[in-house]
Design goal:
There is one protein chain. The chain is an alpha/beta fold. Helix content is 39%, strand content 23%. The protein contains nine helices and twelve strands. The protein has a six-stranded mixed β-sheet with strand order 2-1-3-8-7-6, with helices on both faces. α2 (28-38) packs parallel to α7 (156-167) and α8 packs antiparallel against α9 (228-244). It is elongated. The mean pLDDT is 94.
């Protein structure tokens, strides 16, 4: 059973040339961030790398050192450019081969569909030695966990299904309390005051989010902390900062999406 620190941090590695070329717009990191947020686990970094082994190996090693939990997305399918499993094995110095347990899962999946387990499909059974399989209820081919890295498919529906499985094994950490202060104004008029607040109140994080035009429309300031009193105190202070600009701001508990 994996042991996590009191406040674990997560990172995400998106793998695929299609993401870097603009052909495909990522949905997986956004989905993962929401799931982790519900469990009180911050997503501290998201990287995107091409389908190139050295890039994957370097990123996996770096993120594995930086975060307590790492998720990868993409590159574990049946085609020649699906090289993630081999790259993960290289990153950890682990042997890799067709795993009997993974083959059995794939065989049962395709037998149920009346289809053949072709050599291409069999490639999805290449799993590093010592890795734990992640159930895939959508397309059969399992993901896997090696060290603190959770390796999952890039297709959004499959990725989401795998995240649902993995999330049940993650700790439920104390959630951050958020208050959103909204008023009409410019970020520049509040910048100094926001910095002073974040410096003065331990454990406080402040995010400033201008309206869609960026020309003085509704401005939302989000105050977050694991200490509810700190978040609320900051929100009241931000409302006062708006007032110094002649703006009547509102405070809403929670974080606007």
């Amino acid at each position: 059973m994996t042991t996590y620190p009191e406040f674990p941090r997560a990172a995400c590695l998106l793998i695929g040339d299609e993401l870097l070329s603009g052909r495909t717009q990522d949905r997986n990191a956004h989905h993962l961030a929401g799931v982790l947020n519900e469990r009180g686990i911050p997503l501290i970094e998201v990287r995107v790398v091409p389908d190139e082994t050295p890039a994957i190996v370097e990123a996996v090693r770096a993120l594995s050192d930086k975060a307590d939990i790492v998720f990868t997305s993409g590159g574990i399918g049946p085609t020649h450019d699906d090289i993630t499993a081999d790259a993960i094995a290289e990153a950890f110095g682990a042997p890799i081969s067709d795993r009997d347990d993974a083959i059995a899962i794939l065989q049962a999946f395709y037998d149920a569909k009346g289809e053949e387990l072709t050599p291409a499909r069999r490639r999805m059974a290449r799993i590093p030695d010592g890795a734990e399989l992640i159930h895939n209820a959508v397309s059969g081919a399992p993901g896997f966990i090696l060290g603190n890295v959770h390796v999952m498919a890039g297709v959004p529906t499959i990725f989401a299904a795998m995240v649902e499985v993995v999330a049940e094994t993650l700790p439920q950490c104390p959630a951050e309390t958020a208050f959103t202060v909204t008023g009409v104004g410019h970020e520049s008029t509040l910048a100094a005051g926001l910095l002073d607040l974040e410096t003065a109140l331990k454990g406080l994080k402040i995010g400033s989010y201008p309206g869609p035009t960026g020309t003085g429309g509704p401005l939302s300031i989000v105050c977050k902390s694991r200490n509810p009193a700190t978040a609320e105190q900051a929100a009241i202070a931000v409302k006062a900062l708006f007032a110094t600009q002649g703006v009547q701001a509102t405070i809403q508990e929670g974080q606007e999406k």
